[in-house]
Amino acid sequence: MGEKVVADRFDLSDRRRYRQKLHQCLEGLRQLLEEKRFDRPRNLMGLEIELNLADAQGQPLMVNGEVLRRIASSDFQTELGQFNLEVNIVPHALSGRVLDQLAEELRTGLAYADRQARKADARIVMIGTLPTLTPHDLTSANLTEDDRYRLLNDQIMAARGEDVVLDIDGVEHLRTTSESIAPESACTSVQLHLQVTPGRFADVWNAAQAVSGAQIAMGANSPFLFGHELWRESRIPLFLQATDTRTPELCAQGVRPRTWFGERWISSAYDLFEENVRYFPALLPVCDQEDPGRVLASGGVPTLAELTLHNGTVYRWNRPVYGVMDGAPHLRVENRVLPAGPTVADVLANTAFYYGLVRALADEARPVWQRMPFSYAERNFEAACRYGIDAELWWPRAGRGTGLVRLPATRLVRDELLPLAAAGLDAWGVEPADRDRCLSVIEERCRLRVNGASWQATAYRRALEGGLDREKALAAVTRAYCDRAATGAAVHTWDNGP
Predict the structure, then answer these.
(1) Residues in CB range of 104: below 8 A, 6 or more apart
(2) What does DSSP assign to residue 90?
(3) I want to staple 44 with a disulfide (CB 3.0 to 4.6 A). Which of 100, 195, 232, 412 is the partner?
């Protein structure tokens, strides 16, 4: 949810001044890009995972403050809901045994955090959306006690001027309302960062957009919300609707939502930051004392604080990030497509698939974004969210032919995208044994047509067939999920009985 924000109200002059500062920051970014001031290539990647806290029965537990005190590590932080945590892994060079190192760090860190959580009668659950959540769990009273969450909630609700409407029509139809943005806390994700030079940024971002449908098809893990079976990755429409500042009238006018796939391929990182300023009004108009122009004139590097804060309130699924480290500015692509879980093995498989595929596509002489209209990337994204591993996706025809073909996601991934991902990991210099171990998980998901979402849905149907009512079936699925995840085995190897 971004940096700590200290403010409790804003007046008209705050918003006017903030808009002015945003344009000053944009000019500063343009100047930095023009003067080629950015950090050298370092092939750095980073990883964040949002987590849930649940009791032994699989019900959400609002104890993140107590659990964080017990963990006592800066690697773990709060998130929006009191049943949420986030773990951050320090940046790694994307080469050698990085996948094995990440796996070890995650297993060690999560095991320690889970031991501490159990002292508070909680367990850590890595899942896109906890199946046992109810509307009574997702209220403003259960937002984490932190000024920035309360302030963000107040500003989004003030911009809307009315309740949040959740309307998701999938296997079943859910329609309900909320007096706060708390339903967004049901969305727990994996965020993959890749530091890139300005010259490579557009190719990497375009590649990330192009593969987002395949990512979701392979990694979907959020089929339930409020007792309803919806999309295979219900987290995506839920996040969009829970953060939507538009009234129905603004939606009808075609005003863009703050949770946004985008609408075009880009040629520069500047395109995305400029769109964010041009299209979206400020939610948190907190001004910094820094004058970006003065800092640049003196030879320094500005933090571009207002632009960074504003950028963090526009929820692109592939988000541009500006940062300064050791006195040097850098750019990152933050991939926010994937749900959390089910296990570290699954997370690392999704991670390897993404980084390998993005590298391979960004390196192509005839890149996919020159052969496929942007609208088809968005179609793929929605299809994968709805149908998960059973989705059909559009992709440029193989070989020297032109045009697009529509293929089952499993076939597209197995026949075309996995070899590309392997080649991309080779280009990064990733250890072949680690490459093969991670990508074999994706291959097996394709062969068995199983991912986290399909496993949950199958287990749920079996629980219903066994005589459990809806509420008890979802609780049984959640407990079974936790038990199997605790073994560390990838989800495609799990049996289906709750």
Answers:
(1) none
(2) E
(3) 195
Q: What angle do CA 102, 218, 456 make, to 5 degrees?
A: 95
d(Cα 117, Cα 351) in Å, to the nearest integer? 26
How far is CA 273 from each of CA 215, 296, 312, 325, 385, rounded to the nearest angstrom?
24, 19, 11, 19, 26
Go through 61-92 and write b for each residue having 16 or more CB atoms within 10 A of its CB, e for each that does not: bbbbebbbebbeeeebbbbbbbbbbbbbbebb
Q: Is 248 exposed, middle or buried (0-12, 13-18, 19+ CB in 10 A)?
A: exposed
Q: Where are the alpha helices (DSSP H) in 35-146?
A: 64-71, 98-118
Buried b (16+ CB within 10 A) or exposed e, 144-168: bebebbbbbbbbbbebbeeebebeb
- What does 168-220 look like in DSSP terms, one character per residue? EESSSEEEEEESSSGGGGG--BEEEEEEE-HHHHHHHHHHHHHHHHHHHHHH-
In this structure, what token pair is assigned to residue 44?
């750095």
Pairing of strands 173-178, 224-225: unpaired
Per-residue pLDDT tens digits for 292-331:
999 999 999 999 999 999 999 999 999 999 999 989 999 9
Residues 91, 94, 95, 96, CA torsion sign: positive
Rg (CA), the chain: 22
Which residue bears the tokens 């809307």? 160
200-211, pLDDT tens digit by residue?
Answer: 999 999 999 999
Crossing angle of helices 374-387/235-242, nearest 10°?
110
Q: Who's near 409: CB < 8 A, 6+ residues apart? A: 213, 214, 217, 218, 384, 389, 390, 391, 392, 393
Classify residue 43 as left (phi > 0), alpha (psi -120 to 50) or beta: left
Span 327-353, pLDDT tens digits: 999 999 999 999 999 999 999 999 999
Cα–Cα separations (whole angstroms), residue 188 to 180, 183, 326, 408: 18, 11, 31, 27
Prior bond to 342 cis, omega within 30? Answer: yes
